[in-house]
Write a structure and sequence with these properties.
- The chain is an alpha+beta fold and 241 residues long.
- The chain folds into 2 domains: 1-56; 86-240, Roll (Nuclear Transport Factor 2, Chain: A), CATH 3.10.450.240.
- The chain contains 5 helices and 5 strands.
- The termini are far apart.
């Protein structure tokens, strides 16, 4: 009886094992597939991270296209300020003098100076033609003012009047410049078209014509003490060009 039970138990166990064997193999296959899938995912994540960590991190001042391990690039040369258009054609010695004036007078700007000189040229001519001594006194130094006043006095003594008109200023060009101690002097060439008429005491035209403008070329020198508070330049000398 005992033997029979034992044999039955063995046979029952064997049958059970035979019945469960396909289930165990299927589970192993599924687990193996899951493990392989997880391994591939883990490798892809870790592999990419490792590659990214090996790449050099670009520094803030490194060029983006700088090859790894290359020599540092040479610092670029600072850009040179463009040369002002007003200095085109100016001799080097004159340009140096203008730069010295600019260094001594922080308010000096060549473009603004030329624009102001253009206006002063018109104002002085019109003041002289109209015998406006007050305006001439404001815009000219003592010597030039005295010369204008002497010409006005002679004209008035002769009973003559001027009917001149400044048609246009064709050109204003830097002629020369110098800084003599604290006194800066800049000479400008003015090329202008002027219609000039002189009348006698009876109103008769004695010279010139309003119908025909003539070209006038004048070299005027303006001066200023670069340490003075007054920013205005005075006409220091007036010559024909």
């Amino acid at each position: 009886m005992g033997y029979a039970r034992t044999l039955h138990a063995v046979r029952s166990g064997t049958a059970l094992m035979q019945d469960r064997k396909p289930v165990t193999v299927l589970e192993i296959v599924i687990l193996a597939m899951v493990a392989a899938f997880l391994g591939l995912r883990l490798y892809s994540v870790l592999g990419r991270r490792a590659e990214q960590e090996e790449e050099p991190v670009p520094q803030r001042f490194d060029p983006e296209d700088k090859p790894h391990g290359s020599r540092p690039a040479v610092a670029p040369t600072p850009a040179v300020a463009p040369r002002p258009a007003e200095l085109e054609g100016v001799m080097p010695a004159v340009e140096r003098a203008l730069r010295e004036i600019s260094a001594a007078d922080s308010r000096f700007v060549i473009g603004q100076f030329l624009e102001g000189a253009r206006g002063a040229y018109r104002m002085i001519l019109e003041a002289f033609w109209k015998s406006d001594r007050e305006t001439l006194r404001e815009l000219c130094d003592d010597d030039v003012y005295a010369g204008f006043v002497a010409a006005i006095d002679a004209r008035e003594a002769a009973g003559e009047t001027l009917e001149n008109t400044l048609i246009r200023i064709e050109e204003v060009r830097i002629h020369s410049a110098v800084l003599d101690g604290r006194i800066a002097r800049i000479a400008l060439l003015f090329v202008a078209d002027i219609a000039a008429v002189t009348r006698d005491k009876d109103g008769n035209v004695v010279a010139g014509s309003l119908d025909d403008a003539i070209e006038s070329r004048d070299v005027w020198t303006f001066s200023r003490n670069v340490t003075a508070r007054d920013p205005n330049w005075l006409l220091d000398e007036a010559d024909e060009g």
